[in-house]
Amino acid sequence: MISDIPPASESVDILKIILTIFLVLLNGFFVAAEFAIVKVRSSQISTTKGASQKLVNTARIVTNNLDNYLAATQLGVTLASLGLGWVGESVMTGVVVKFFHLFSVDLSTPTASKIAIVLAFVLITVLHIVFGELAPKSIAIRKAPQTTLLVAVPLRIFYFIFRPFILLLNAMANLILKAFGISPVKEQDIHTEEEIKMIITESEEGGAIEDSERELINNVFDFDSRRVREILTHRKDIVALDIDASFDEIVNTVVAEGYSRYPVYKNSLDELVGILTVKDILQFVNAGKNRDIKKILRPVFYIPDSMKIKDILKSFQKDHLQIAVVTDEYGDLAGIVTMEDILEELVGDIQDEHDAELPIVVEQPDGSFLVQSHETLEDINEFLPRPFPPDGEDDYSTLSGLITFRHGSVPVEGEVLHQDGYEITILKMYRSSVEKVRLRLLPETSLPQEEDK
297: closest CA among 248, 242, 258? Predict the structure, then answer.
């Protein structure tokens, strides 16, 4: 072991030190290249500021041939590590010995020589891990587009030099993967719907996008699977016109209700004869006694309640429709659906100039409060005798969010909760959101945070 220690008179080879540092940095280059090309997306490369189109094209060649270039980075890491192991340990041992000789440490004893070798090994290992692995990896992950552009050209050169060997190694690796039933890595990293939703949620939590933007994007994904039975206006809520009603009665109904389209029936809703639009009614206003609405009825467009919303939208666009009548599995009228209903699935509730603006809080004669719980706590608290606590660092800003957060799950209509000194009755839900509640102030002696689950 003592013979492994170089004599005190032997100077440290500067060229070998430079070679060691170069091999550490070379290892770091290939590590950074590996992590960068795996993490980066094609769109990020194209939008990186200051990058020439030629460099962007080179980077795309690398990322579009991910399998081969990953093999190139692995080969580069292996070669650099082998070279570092061959040169680096002896160089670091020489450095440690030189350092010990400066302090007149006697390395002729077995203990001292072992300490010198261990210190040299630790030193080269630390350099390798920190500068050849961890630092490059962290930089590549945080700056994937910039790193990809930086390594693209030299990585391409390395690939062409060792291309036959890389292809051979890659083919051997793919054969092994095939034997285990595993597909080789794909060039294009396709995100699943759930992964995209997770990315969107994390982006919102990080402040990159607004809550409304996250909700809109999630609605787009949900839109594909939702069916018309989930959004229709139920038959009991339909405002329809009797074909035998007088023209004045029809006009009065239209003015009172404020809708733009009405189903017209004979005897009952199960016998629809057409759709009447306000625009068509206007042409009869000055027609005197010749006001036969049968002449201006539009045909009824029927759809099953199992039809997907996306398919209804396509039909509406193709046939220039705004309203459809929905039938159940037995062919009976289940309700109606309009273009506005479909759009509200994406952007939320749409109010036009005829829709009454609902008050945020309405005090009832019995002392309770009817509250639109999708409003902010700040706005709601202005009308309540006992304010709800502010959201602080919790992930909510509306009363609906507070109720769900405190309850620990999505409540159901009719459920009664006790929170923050109020008895809260859930009156209306929209999907997983609490739309309307009744608040009843509890006596001060009541438990403020009790929840009925």
Answer: 242
| Closest of 412, 381, 359, 382 to residue 391, by C-alpha | 381
Cα distance between residue 130 and residue 423, in whole Å: 59
Residue at 238: amino acid letter = I
Contact 435, 373 (CB under 8 A): yes
Q: Is 349 helix (H, G, I), strand (E, B) or coil?
A: coil
Other beta carbons within 10 Å of 335? 22
Q: Tokens for 241?
A: 């016109």
Residues 6 or more apart whose CB falls under 8 angstroms from that of 255 comprise: none
Using CA atoms, how far apart are residues 204 and 210, in angstroms rounded to an integer?
6
Q: Which strand ranges, in their side-by-side order, compose the sheet holding 361-363?
A: 361-363, 369-372, 433-441, 422-430, 416-419
How far is CA 415 from each of CA 71, 418, 442, rounded to the nearest angstrom?
Answer: 59, 10, 17
For residue range 261-311, list pLDDT tens digits in order: 999 999 888 899 999 998 888 877 766 666 778 888 999 999 998 999 989
Q: 123 is written with which tokens?
A: 């030193």
Residue showing tokens 């996250």: 214
Residues 228, 309: contact at Cβ < 8 Å? yes
